[in-house]
User: Fold these one by one.
Assistant:
Number 1:
Amino acid sequence: MINESEAIVVRYIYEAFISGVALYKIKEKAKELGLKRMGTTAVERILTNPLYYGFQHVKPWKQNPGGLYPLKNHEPIVDPTTWKLVNEKIKRGTKERKIYDDQIPLRGALRCHCGKLLTGAASKGKMGKYYYYYKCSIASAHNNINAEKAHKQLSGALELMSLPEKLISSIKEKSEIEMETTLKEHKTLLKQRQIEYEQTGQKLLSIEEKWISNRIQHDTYERWHNELTIKKESLKDQIDKLRHNSDKTYSLLQDQLFYLSDLNYVYTEANTIEKQELIKMVFDDFLYYENGIYRTPYIMEPFIRNEFKMRGMGCLDYTKKRDN
C-alpha cells in the first residue's frame, strides 16, 4: 500500500531530477517535504530503486535468468517511463554542478550572444557593498551585465508580454470546448487500453501455464514473458495518464490561467528554479543578451505582444528566425 505523504516526496524527487534541478536543491526540498531517510546518497538510492515503479531486481537462480521483474499486488509510485528516463539520465552522467543564487536567478538560463550560458557573481564596490553581475565565461568583453539593470529590463518585457483579460477569457472558452472533445476521445481510448491490458494479462498467464507444464522451452518463455510484461507495463502507464491528466489540466485551466494577465508577477513570486523553468519555456531556451538588450528568435505564441514597444523601451528585441 502506498503511503501518500511519503509518495509525494518520491514523486517530487523524480519530477525535479527530470526537470534538471540540481541534486543538492532536490535534497533540500525533499527534507522540507518530510524525507526521513538519512545519508548523503538517500536521494540517489530513491532514484535508482525499481521498487518505486513496481519492479524488483532478481538474481539469477539455476536456469532462471536474473533481471528486473514486475511485483504482483505492488502499486507503483512513479510510472515506468519516468523511472527509465531518470535512470538513463543518471547513466549519462552530469557534466556540471548547478549552483543557484537568488540574487542572480538567470545564471544558467540566460545566454551570451556567443551562445554560452552566462555565469554570475558578486563584485565588491569601493564602499564595501556587493553588486551582482552576469558574465560570459568565454570572454569578459562579450558580456558583463549589471544584474539589477538586467532584472528591470526583464520585468519590463514580461509586463508587456502579459495577456489582456479579454484574450484570457477567449483562451479559456476555446480550451474548454477543445477539452470536451478531448475528454470524449480519452474515454473511448481508455476503454480500448483497458481491454488490451486485460488481454495482455491473460496472455501472460497462458505463457506461465505453458512453461510450468513444459509445453514451451525456457528461452521461448523468457522472450514472450519479457515482451508481454513490457507491453502490459506500457498499457498501465497509458491508462493512468488517460484517467488523471484531463482532471489536472482542467483544474489548472480554471484556477491558474488568470495569472497570465501579470507574467511579471508569476516570475517575481517564483523561486529561482521556477524562474529558470519559466524563462526556458517561454523563450524555448533561446534568451540572449547583447549590446545592452535581451534578444530572442522565439517567444511562445500567446506572449508575442508589443514587440515594437519592448524594443523601443530597450527591454527585448524579438526577431523571428524560425517557425514558432
Note: Residues 148 and 184 are 50 Å apart (CA to CA).
Number 2:
Amino acid sequence: MTVDEEPEHIFDQVQIGKGIRPLAQHGYVVVEDGVLELLGSRGRVIESAPMSRVRAARVRFTGGKTLAVKVNGTRYTLSPKWGDKAGHLVRPGRPEDVERAADELLGLIAAGGGTVG
C-alpha cells in the first residue's frame, strides 16, 4: 500500500480480547489484499495473517455481535463497532451497528478464503 492508498476495509472501535483478557478496547481490524490485521488501540499490530489462516464464528451468548476468530491458530474475540465516538467521549456502540459490522467482517473473511462457521 502506498501513502495515498486506502486499505480495502477498516473496522474501528473494535473490542479485541484473548480469552477473558482485553487486548484493545478501541482497536482496529484491517482487511487488505487478502490479509486480516488486528491492531491495538494505538495502531500496534497484534496479529496478522492471510485470510486462509483465519477462522471465524459468532459467539452465541452475545446475540452474534461478538465473533470468535482464530488467526494463525490463536483465538481472539472481536466486537466491531463496540465503541461509538462522540467528540472526545466514547460510549457503547449501537447494537444494530455492531451486528452489521460483525456481518460485514464475516462476509469479508468468507470471501477472502477464510473459514466461517
Note: The CA atoms of residues 55 and 115 lie 5 Å apart.
Number 3:
Amino acid sequence: MYNGSPPSSLPTHYHAWRWQGSAEPLELALEQVPLQPPAAGEVLVRNAVIGLNPVDWKVLGGGLADWQPGHIPGVDGAGEVLAVGEGVPAEWLGHRVAYHTSLHGHGSFAEYAPVAARALLRLPDRLNFEVGASIPCPALTAWLAIEKVPVQPGQPLLVSGAGGAVGQYLVQLASSRGFAVSAMAHARHHGRLRALGAGECLAGPLADGHAWAGGRRFHALIDTVSGSHAERMAEALRANGHLICIQDRVPGWPCPPFGLTLSMHEVALGALHVLGDDTAWQHLTAAGERMLAEIAEGRLRAEACLVRGFDELAQLLEDLRHRNFSGKALVRIR
C-alpha cells in the first residue's frame, strides 16, 4: 500500500507497450512510463507473464473502447501483488495471481499493471505464471457461456468454432456437466477435441453464405464464430433449445414467435467490468479459481502455449491476428 511516490522496493518508472492510435499491432510502442499507486479498490501487480487474446488486436481499431494515444492495452496477465489501494486488504500483498482486467483502464501489456481487486484469481502453488496467464479470458468466457444452459445430462450440445482457446474449455466444461458434446472445427483440431471430451467432431465453421443442413438435433448451441454464423447455425436447434453467442450477437430472432421458442443468450466478459456488481464478480472469480485448481490437479487441460519475450509482444500480437501459429500466445517478462 502506498500513496504518492513508490516505495524504495518499487521503481519510479516501468516499461509498457502503448497504443499510438493505430489499428496495427506493429505500431504499438515500447516506452517508459511513471509508476502510479493503485487506486481505491485496486492492486498493483508485477507481471511475470502476459496472455494475448484476439480482443487485444481487435480493440486497436478503436471500435471497442474510447482510448487516447498512450493507453496501455492488454486484458490478461499473471504475477505478484506488490501494492494495494485504499479499501483492499493488505493480505493480498505477495499473493501470486492471475487476472482479467477492463479494456477501459490501463492493461496488462506492461511490467506492472493496476488491477481491480475483485478480479484477482489466486494461483495454486503448483501452477506457474505461464499457465496462469493463459487462463482468464478464454476460461472465464467459457464458464459464462456454459452457465447459460440449464444442466440436463445426456442432452446434445454443439460448440461451433471449437478449435480456439474458448472451445478448449467449453468442450471440457460441457462434458463434465454431462452433456453429449459435439464440436465443430477444422479437422486439424478434431483429435485434440475428442481427447477433451467431444463425442463427435464436425467440419466447420460454415462457409460464408452457407446454412446448416444437418437437421434440428441439438438442445444447445454455443457459437464462438460470429453473430451471422450463429444465426445460420440456429437451424441445428430443437424446440426449446438454447443459442449462446460469444462473438457478436444474432442480428435477428432466428424463429417466429410461438414456434420453436428458442432461448437466446449472449456472453460479454468485458462488460462485467462496467456493469457487473461485486456478487457477479465473486461468482466469476470463484469459478476461475476452481478451474485453476482443476488444472493443477490434472482434471482440466489448459491450452498448449507459445511463449515469447517482452520485446517481441507487438510481433506476437500481429502473428496472432493472422493466426500464424497454434496454441496460446504468451509473453514472458521475468
Note: The mean pLDDT is 95.
